[in-house]
Design brief:
Deoxyribonuclease I, Chain A; 12 strands; about 240 residues; six-stranded mixed beta sheet; alpha+beta
Length: about 240
């Protein structure tokens, strides 16, 4: 699982994603909150998060269901938005994923926040071969992304969160099969990943991230990855 923070801009809208490592420890949460405010994103997709961690009073939220394990208020994913949430959209996995239709100045935007399975994730089963759950879930989510685009043809789409798979750069985490499956699922829904290794600011991260932001192709062509930080290092210097 990853703890990078990544921020992308498109047409003056700033979108960030960050795995906040369960948002544990009050002192760390204050430092995390300062970093969220400094990044000044209009939309945040936080993963492995908790209701205690908020980017500010001007944001509204759409949450996954309470985690099956963890303290009260623990969530796999939360979307925080400065823009109105017109509606939350139904998802297949309400514990890992959340989707919301936002009313942005540039037009309607669907944000789908997710934590894709990691190598030892057994999902609803007690035992599963390494990466089997990723191979099962990723094309299912890809079908969801495409269905949302078809149901809301006037809306752009952003899929972001902890993809648990690096894309480009030296091998970091994942498998060749998993990377291709993820790329195919994104492409099938008309999405481009703007957090590919080749799009990172130079020397921003030591290794290719597994947290990602993907945008509708028409938006991705105008998007720029404006900043990226390794959270472990950031927390140490905070």
């Amino acid at each position: 699982m990853a703890f990078e923070q990544l921020v992308a801009d498109y047409r003056t809208v700033r979108i960030g994603t960050w795995n906040v490592e369960y948002a544990a420890d009050a002192a760390k949460n204050e430092r995390r909150r300062r970093r969220l405010q400094e990044a000044d994103c209009d939309i945040w997709i936080l993963t492995e998060t908790h209701d205690d961690l908020t980017p500010g009073p001007e944001y509204v939220a759409a949450h996954t269901a309470q985690r099956l394990t963890g303290r009260a208020g623990a969530r796999w994913t939360t979307i925080w938005s400065r823009y109105p949430i017109e509606q939350t959209l139904p998802v297949e996995d309400e514990h890992r994923t959340v989707a919301a239709l936002l009313s942005c100045p540039q037009g309607p935007l669907i944000v789908f926040g997710t934590v894709l399975p990691w190598h030892s994730d057994a999902g609803p089963r007690s035992i599963a071969p390494s990466w089997a759950e990723f191979y099962r879930v990723t094309p299912q989510q890809g079908a969801e992304w495409l269905a949302m685009r078809r149901a809301h043809p006037d809306a752009a789409l952003c899929v972001a969160g902890d993809f648990n798979m690096n894309l480009g750069g030296k091998h970091h985490y994942g498998t060749v099969k998993g990377r291709q499956m993820l790329r195919d699922s994104l492409a099938g829904a008309g999405l481009d990943c703007v957090t590919e290794w080749t799009r990172l600011p130079e020397a921003a991260l030591r290794s290719s991230p597994i947290d990602h932001i993907a945008l509708s192709a028409e938006l991705a062509s105008r998007a720029q990855l404006s900043s990226a930080w390794g959270a472990r290092m950031r927390m140490a210097s905070g």
